[in-house]
């Protein structure tokens, strides 16, 4: 896995080149002209302690903090796609990761893909920060083969044992100890503010809302990815924060396993009813039409992954899901809310 870092990704967008690509994608001329006007001749100033700098007019890049900028960056790089079936490029705004499958120690396609990706970035005037670009090798063979260094623009890419991607810590052994430890530490720090609300005699409903927004949201971040593969020790770490919050608020809170089951079902259902989802083919009904075909797993690690857990979860439900209309896809039942009860 190659985790790519760009230097000031949004600031290097060339409006004329972006508009040319949007025109090729079929956007209307009026919309393209509006976007070109939006990105051109933007006045910028800096204000510090009442002092304002001189106005600087910018005609390159996209405004930082604008909700439109990530979308424009995604459209700019839409043609950066893999050339080989063994490689996959994951893009989320300016966070780009290339995942390659290396078979029989043959890295030819992987290295060619990296070279083509670097060329695509250069053509789009995107500057790769090789110093912050990292690579992680996942190899479970008993005797791993040494890998030659990977270079981009003549500089070697650093190999690391773990890295952080979209808020999730990914390790080369696919363990989740670092991730759960980080989530537990971050969530426990926010218990301090929950205790402050308790001392201020805030009602349980307010504390419950605060818990869901600032603590539960951390504990359940990408929970469908990692909780199923956690060790028993990792699973005991996070519920302690939930129990501590229960004692502070004084009302029962949904457990992480309950939230995991709800979100696992919701995510699996959305994939089942989305025929264009890349993983839709993994959910195939048996001839009876009541259960989904089980996925084979050659290891416990694979058997505990999201898709295998999702199929087992759907098969454990009392009845199959009814078909959903497109506008109903996101109207699935939300996770249970904590009960708002007051203590005597």
Work out the number of β strands: 13
Structural class: alpha+beta
The dominant shape is globular
Please, how many helices?
13
Write down the overall mean pLDDT.
Answer: 86
Strand order of the largest sheet: 6-7-1-8-11
What is the domain tally?
3
- Element pattern in H and E: EHHEEEEHEEHEEEEEEHHHHHHHHH
Residues in β-strands, percent: 5-15%
Low-confidence region ranges: 322-336, 340-344
User: What does the main sheet amount to?
Assistant: 5 strands, mixed
* End-to-end CA span: 55 Å
Q: Could you estimate the helical fraction of the residues in percent?
A: 25-40%
What is the C-alpha radius of gyration, as a whole number of Å? 24 Å
What does this structure look like?
The chain has 344 residues and is an alpha+beta fold. The chain folds into 3 domains: 2-44 and 56-163, no CATH class; 176-254; 260-328, no CATH class. The protein contains 13 helices and 13 strands. It has helices at 15-24, 29-39, 68-76, 108-123, 177-189, 191-199, 204-219, 223-226, 232-237, 239-249, 256-272, 300-303, 306-316; strands spanning 2-4, 42-44, 47-48, 51-52, 56-58, 87-92, 95-100, 134-135, 151-152, 155-156, 158-159, 162-165, 168-171. The strands form 5 sheets. The protein has a 5-stranded mixed sheet, with helices on one face. A hairpin with a 2-residue loop joins β6 (87-92) and β7. α5 (177-189) packs antiparallel against α7 (204-219), α6 runs antiparallel to α7 (204-219) and α6 (191-199) packs parallel to α10. The N and C termini lie far apart (55 Å). Mean pLDDT is 86; it is low at 322-336 and 340-344.
